[in-house]
């Protein structure tokens, strides 16, 4: 008998794309990670604790930027100094089709879920969607959207790093939890879901 070959584990860095975003999330570029954390924390304090308004904040930042660039350009022309270095302010042609493709995929996925619930009367998908929406509503009642985004950023900068360091014991715990959840779901499926009468295909055709 041949020896069983264990599947090769993919690293967290590769799972995150092995790019600059993965480096920031795993603190391989610690200066960028600190910058993101400091920026997000500052914005959260301004909007949540200091009561600053998002529209007034954006307007003031743009106002200062326009004033600085205007006087910089005027002084540069008078003092024979170089003009402010502005990047090429154009949207590349490839970004719009990529964004449209991503929106197209997610829209079709949402429509397929709606088709399973309304047309196919899939009770399992219906319960998953209802439970997910209820959890989202419950979390939204505990904190506002800005705080939720801030918590998401904190988790993004901490969970991948912790998982990268303790991947093996976490995987073992997750596998055990997955088996327990599957066993409980099978019991619930046999005791409740399979006993709910659903219309058969013949009844659908006659209707």
From TrEMBL:
Membrane topology listed for this record: Multi-pass membrane protein
Reticulon domain ranges (all copies): 21-207
Gene Ontology, cellular component aspect: endoplasmic reticulum membrane
Compartment annotation: Endoplasmic reticulum membrane
Keyword Secreted: no
Listed transmembrane segments: 30-47, 54-73, 135-163
Protein name: Reticulon-like protein
């Amino acid at each position: 008998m041949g020896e069983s070959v264990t599947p090769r584990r993919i690293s967290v860095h590769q799972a995150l794309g092995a790019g600059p975003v993965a480096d920031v999330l795993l603190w391989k570029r610690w200066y960028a990670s600190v910058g993101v954390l400091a920026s997000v924390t500052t914005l959260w304090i301004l909007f949540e604790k200091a009561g600053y308004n998002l529209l007034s904040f954006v307007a003031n930042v743009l106002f200062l930027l326009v004033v600085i660039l205007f006087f910089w350009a005027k002084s540069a022309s008078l003092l024979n100094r170089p003009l402010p270095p502005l990047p090429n302010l154009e949207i590349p042609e490839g970004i719009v089709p990529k964004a449209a493709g991503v929106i197209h995929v997610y829209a079709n996925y949402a429509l397929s879920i709606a088709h399973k619930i309304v047309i196919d009367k899939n009770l399992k998908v219906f319960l998953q969607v209802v439970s997910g929406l209820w959890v989202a509503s419950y979390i939204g009642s505990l904190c506002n959207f800005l705080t939720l985004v801030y918590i998401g950023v904190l988790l993004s900068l901490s969970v991948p790093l912790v998982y990268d360091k303790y991947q093996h014991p976490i995987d073992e715990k997750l596998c055990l939890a997955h088996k327990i959840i599957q066993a409980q779901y099978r019991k619930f499926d046999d005791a409740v879901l399979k006993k709910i009468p659903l219309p058969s295909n013949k009844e659908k055709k006659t209707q």
